[in-house]
Amino acid sequence: MATQGQVITCKAAVAWEANKPLVIEDVQVAPPQAGEVRIKILFTALCHTDAYTWSGKDPEGLFPCILGHEAAGIVESVGEGVTEVQPGDHVIPCYQAECRECKFCKSGKTNLCGKVRAATGVGVMMNDKKSRFSINGKPIYHFMGTSTFSQYTVVHDVSVAKVDPQAPLEKICLLGCGVPTGLGAVWNTAKVEAGSIVAVFGLGTVGLAVAEGAKAAGASRIIGVDIDSKKYDTAKNFGVTEFVNPKDHDKPIQQVLVDLTDGGVDYSFECIGNVSVMRAALECCHKGWGTSVIVGVAASGQEISTRPFQLVTGRVWKGTAFGGFKSRSQVPWLVDKYMKKEIKVDEYITHELTLGEINKAFDLMHEGGCLRCVLSMHE
Ligand SMILES: NC(=O)c1ccc[n+]([C@@H]2O[C@H](COP(=O)([O-])OP(=O)(O)OC[C@H]3O[C@@H](n4cnc5c(N)ncnc54)[C@H](O)[C@@H]3O)[C@@H](O)[C@H]2O)c1
Ligand SMILES: N[C@@H](CCC(=O)N[C@@H](CSCO)C(=O)NCC(=O)O)C(=O)O
Ligand SMILES: [Zn+2]
Ligand SMILES: [Zn+2]
């Protein structure tokens, strides 16, 4: 291939500083080194975690950087020793790696992987602890090991899922984060059983995917909780059977839910990133067995609290990263499920823009009507 082994200059949205508009720059992308893969990103969506890091509240946030972690593309070239993908393969970059060799991967207890996490947390590649992105010699940090707001990116080979080439990349890019997170929170982390009563706090993409997962698991009631009542109409299509707006009640929301459910829900999911809501989500769980899963990402310095008595009396507090899915093994399986129409993806896409319109896309994210906005990277 003509570009193999060469530096590629392409367009990328660079976050120079926290909260300052992203700037479309000509960025130099170095060739992949051993164990690395260079990907032509065709489509990327925006996730609230990109906005979180951009806001400056992420303790791992480094600037200047290239954000983005929910994308799909085609392998352009691979570094030495890469065997599982080759140029031309259709792939989804995975911010949660899966090396299949480390203590985490071999534990059988978690989807977290330890192989490259230290490097991805400080915005560099593991080989030489340097970035593959630069602008006129000035390094630009990677983000979450993916940096998909660039027409080309370099990732570790343990962070690439090879997927069905028939699958539409402009849709399956969503399987890089939000949708699997919600589905997996229900199926892998909570393991919701048929007949369960479920409460979902926050009806954005992640919360709606929780509802979808709970419906598939056979939940008998799926109670959506959101401060925006307009969310209920859409949420019904994803399985939400009842809706509660905390603003319509004088009582604390946990009490409202306990009263509605004869003592509390079997499972609750916090899909917002608000530590007060995390407490409410735990405390609305049924005594003796109710389990609450934290999915939302809260800002640096925020802490959760509750009376220990809540746990002493049998409630369980858990969290989930990427819904507990093993990325390289299970993202292709999720793509296949989408192709068989067993899970929704298209329904979460409310807007489509281009890379050049990325700041507008971030503005849209803060509007109630936006679930996922997909950017076409080469228009
Ligand atoms: N753990 C993971 O692996 C993982 C993966 C993806 C996203 N996330 C996180 O999940 C969270 C949700 O992501 P999203 O894309 O669905 O976000 P979103 O902003 O689209 O959805 C959040 C919803 O919460 C509602 N809300 C806000 N404050 C509320 C309150 N006090 N009470 C009730 N509802 C409230 C909003 O109206 C909105 O509908 C974010 O924090 C994101 O960073 C975590
Ligand atoms: N740097 C952040 C981490 C935030 C966080 O918890 N990220 C989630 C993914 S959010 C995707 O939209 C996650 O999977 N965490 C596990 C991991 O990062 O290994 C902070 O410190 O707040
Ligand atoms: Zn995300
Ligand atoms: Zn591993």
UniProtKB/TrEMBL annotation:
<dbReference type="Pfam" id="PF00107">
    <property type="entry name" value="ADH_zinc_N"/>
</dbReference>
<dbReference type="InterPro" id="IPR002328">
    <property type="entry name" value="ADH_Zn_CS"/>
</dbReference>
<dbReference type="GO" id="GO:0051903">
    <property type="term" value="F:S-(hydroxymethyl)glutathione dehydrogenase [NAD(P)+] activity"/>
</dbReference>
<protein>
    <recommendedName>
        <fullName>S-(hydroxymethyl)glutathione dehydrogenase</fullName>
        <ecNumber>1.1.1.284</ecNumber>
    </recommendedName>
</protein>
<dbReference type="GO" id="GO:0005829">
    <property type="term" value="C:cytosol"/>
</dbReference>
<feature type="domain" description="Alcohol dehydrogenase-like N-terminal">
    <location>
        <begin position="34"/>
        <end position="163"/>
    </location>
</feature>
<keyword id="KW-0560">Oxidoreductase</keyword>
<dbReference type="InterPro" id="IPR011032">
    <property type="entry name" value="GroES-like_sf"/>
</dbReference>
<comment type="similarity">
    <text>Belongs to the zinc-containing alcohol dehydrogenase family. Class-III subfamily.</text>
</comment>
<feature type="domain" description="Alcohol dehydrogenase-like C-terminal">
    <location>
        <begin position="206"/>
        <end position="334"/>
    </location>
</feature>
<dbReference type="Pfam" id="PF08240">
    <property type="entry name" value="ADH_N"/>
</dbReference>
<dbReference type="GO" id="GO:0004022">
    <property type="term" value="F:alcohol dehydrogenase (NAD+) activity"/>
</dbReference>
<keyword id="KW-0862">Zinc</keyword>
<keyword id="KW-0479">Metal-binding</keyword>
<dbReference type="InterPro" id="IPR013154">
    <property type="entry name" value="ADH-like_N"/>
</dbReference>
<dbReference type="InterPro" id="IPR014183">
    <property type="entry name" value="ADH_3"/>
</dbReference>
<dbReference type="GO" id="GO:0008270">
    <property type="term" value="F:zinc ion binding"/>
</dbReference>
<dbReference type="InterPro" id="IPR036291">
    <property type="entry name" value="NAD(P)-bd_dom_sf"/>
</dbReference>
<keyword id="KW-0520">NAD</keyword>
<comment type="subunit">
    <text>Homodimer.</text>
</comment>
<keyword id="KW-0963">Cytoplasm</keyword>
<dbReference type="GO" id="GO:0046294">
    <property type="term" value="P:formaldehyde catabolic process"/>
</dbReference>
<dbReference type="InterPro" id="IPR013149">
    <property type="entry name" value="ADH-like_C"/>
</dbReference>
